[in-house]
Write a sequence for this structure.
């Protein structure tokens, strides 16, 4: 709220979910107030993740905000999602992370809230993102946007080098810039700490994590509670193979988990992406990669704190989590999440243009 209230010239927002609830109403009203003091406001919400009634957003439109939905719910683009979360003020300050605009992301464990992580960024890194948001807004407004133009934008605005750089994910024909960088970072890594609310990566990414477990220290915190039991079952399907290779796995206990944090040696990735097939290869994602030992050490301390709130899973535990019908359900969940959903969505969104 302070970021919005402090804006003087522009506000650019990208959100997967913008709910018609108390939190959404407060943010909407703050954006209306910004418009009334002369701030230029633009907002992109996802057509799948935000089913908010147009009546809720109309007062913001009437105040002068530029609002559009990323690929509304029709046509073969239906399964493509803009999963990015960003609030950028005056082209100089931004918040990036995993949280949406909805009550659950601003509530504590006692209210069934989500555990999440955001990062405040100021200065040149924030300035460099303004062109990308404007390009995405222009693409989203087109009556018949072409996927090849979106792929070009992902490639153009992802930064190939630098200690602080933006990486985009999306429906590219090969690995997206973010997925490619994660693969490269993991190639020779000796220390990988992941917090992934949704954990169902490809077999190739699982093998990379296996190798880190064998040669170094690989630890994963994932969800014990969620709004989708299928994703928890899919994650648990991967546990036995990882545990046998020395990867330590923890399930976060106090509340539903929504954090997305990757610490790979001294490189930290923070943003909207999970460690699953959609985030790696299909969804529109926004990640900030920071290569700095002191910052990585600080985030490792955060990881240790979250680990203390989690229950470690062992191979012995898998006799309960992974026996009989439960194991079959886990295999089916992984197949649905990592094969069926991914394959159908990718074919619909990459063919023909």
């Amino acid at each position: 709220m302070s970021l919005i209230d402090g804006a003087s010239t522009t506000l650019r927002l990208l959100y997967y979910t913008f709910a018609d609830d108390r939190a959404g109403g407060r943010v909407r009203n703050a954006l209306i107030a910004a418009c009334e003091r002369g701030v230029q406001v633009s907002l992109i919400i996802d057509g799948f993740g935000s089913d908010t009634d147009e009546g809720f957003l109309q007062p913001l439109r009437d105040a002068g905000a530029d609002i559009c939905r990323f690929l509304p719910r029709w046509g073969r683009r239906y399964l493509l999602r803009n999963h990015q979360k960003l609030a950028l003020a005056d082209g100089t300050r931004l918040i990036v992370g995993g949280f949406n605009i909805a009550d659950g992301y601003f509530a504590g464990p006692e209210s069934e809230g989500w555990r999440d992580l955001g990062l405040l960024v100021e200065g040149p890194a924030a300035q460099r993102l303004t062109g990308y948001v404007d390009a995405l807004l222009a693409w989203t407004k087109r009556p018949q946007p072409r996927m090849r133009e979106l792929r070009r934008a992902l490639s153009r605005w992802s930064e190939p080098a630098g200690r602080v750089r933006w990486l985009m994910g999306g429906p590219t024909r090969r690995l997206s810039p973010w997925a490619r960088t994660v693969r490269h970072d993991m190639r020779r890594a000796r220390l990988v700490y992941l917090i992934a609310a949704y954990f169902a990566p490809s077999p190739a990414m699982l093998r990379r994590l296996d190798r880190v477990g064998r040669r170094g220290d690989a630890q994963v915190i994932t969800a014990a509670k969620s709004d989708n039991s299928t994703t928890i079952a899919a994650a648990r399907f991967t546990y036995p193979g990882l545990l046998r290779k020395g990867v330590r796995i923890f399930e976060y206990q106090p509340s539903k988990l929504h954090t997305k944090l990757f610490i790979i040696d001294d490189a930290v990735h923070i943003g909207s992406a999970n460690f699953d097939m959609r985030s790696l290869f299909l969804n529109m994602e926004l990640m900030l990669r920071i290569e700095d030992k002191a910052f990585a050490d600080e985030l490792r301390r955060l990881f240790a704190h979250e680990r203390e709130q989690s229950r470690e899973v062992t191979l012995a535990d898998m006799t309960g989590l992974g026996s009989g019908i439960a194991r079959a359900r886990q295999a089916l969940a992984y197949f649905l999440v990592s094969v069926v959903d991914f394959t159908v969505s990718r074919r619909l969104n990459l063919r023909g243009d």
